[in-house]
Specification:
Radius of gyration: 19 Å
Oligomer: single chain
CATH class: Mainly Alpha
CATH superfamily: Phosphatidic acid phosphatase type 2/haloperoxidase
Largest sheet: none
CATH topology: Vanadium-containing Chloroperoxidase, domain 1
Number of domains: 1
Structural class: mainly alpha
Shape: elongated
């Protein structure tokens, strides 16, 4: 069973890594002059589902999706606690690593070049000053839509690793891991996996598209989340807390 869990999580890890792999294979680079389309506007709302405070709503919705699968609702509460632990742990690791590596975002590098300043001077400001600096700069950038300007002014942290990627990958691994742990084979569980997979892949794509991250940020973030969730589900399998405790929707 441990081997099956490893195979399942590895498969979805590889699937997510397709996004940075394609960027590398085709030598893709973010271009600040790219014209934003209606699809990009839709991507903005999707990427916001991984941003505070909307990420909290996303967590609640995804946790509730598992409620029908548990015969014992107390076990569902325990599962939600595991999910909360996963999100808090991975986001905590992300925050520590960002402050260690202090890598500038692609759009910050672009702004620094356009204003003939340095990324170091940008990050020496506090978060509020960074936002004000960007507001002043974007007043001269008429080609950038207002919603993207707002996103830039809000996301003024470091680039590596990607918190949105870790968040999306983490939830995909939680969904895949718990369906494997509970032995879920129903159509509803398969639909849940499919929806979260598409959401996760598009989340990664949006981070590249909007100039928020480099492919290496996404790649390492996926691997980091993979390692954390392999350890989490290895522990849960040893404890056998959730084994064979789902409803008739298992099969």
């Amino acid at each position: 069973m441990v081997t099956n869990m490893l195979k399942r999580l590895s498969l979805y890890t590889l699937l997510l890594c397709i996004v940075p792999f394609f960027a590398w294979i085709f030598a893709w680079q973010w271009n600040a002059n790219d014209v934003m389309t209606n699809f990009d506007y839709a991507l903005y709302f999707l990427t916001e589902s991984g941003s505070v405070p909307y990420a909290i709503i996303t967590c609640g919705v995804l946790a509730l999706c598992f409620y029908p699968f548990f015969l014992d609702k107390k076990l569902w509460v325990k599962a939600v606690m595991v999910m909360a632990f996963s999100v808090i742990l991975t986001q905590g690791i992300k925050s520590v690593l960002k402050n260690i590596f202090t890598e500038p975002r692609p759009y910050v590098t672009y702004v620094a070049e356009q204003t003939q300043t340095s990324t170091e001077s940008f990050y020496q400001r506090d978060r509020e000053q960074r936002s004000l600096f960007l507001q002043h700069f974007f007043q001269t950038q008429s080609t950038i839509p207002s919603w993207l300007k707002y996103h830039y002014e809000k996301e003024v942290g470091y680039s590596f690793p990607s918190g949105h990627t870790i968040f999306a990958a983490g939830w995909l691994f939680l969904v895949v891991g718990f369906t494997q742990l509970l032995g879920l084979r129903s159509m509803s569980s398969k639909i849940l996996i499919a929806v979260v997979t598409i959401w996760s892949v598009l989340m990664l794509f949006s981070r590249l598209r909007f100039g928020m991250h480099y492919p290496i940020d996404l790649f390492v973030s996926v691997l980091l989340s993979f390692v954390v969730h392999i350890l989490i589900f290895h522990f849960l399998q040893k404890k056998t807390i959730f084994i064979n405790n789902c409803t008739s929707k298992c099969g």
